[in-house]
Amino acid sequence: MAKLKIVVDRNLCIGAATCIAVAPKAFQLDNEAKAIILPTSGEETDQTLLDAAKSCPVAAIILSDETGAQVYP
Prior knowledge:
Blueprint: E1 5-8, H1 18-22, E2 27-29, E3 35-37, H2 46-55, E4 61-64, E5 70-72
Antiparallel strand pairs: 1-4, 2-3, 4-5
């Protein structure tokens, strides 16, 4: 179960959808072709979320730990 907090920077997101390929329970594209975070994101592991964030070609996925410290990027 994921403990990381996820934020998607919608200004950076280009809708590449690599995050969805890596973590389909965490992300999907909305009607503007921007990634949004799903309510089921907690079902993904922290490692899967990190892999999804790293797969983003524009680093639009920001991950923080329980203390609020930024983990990625």
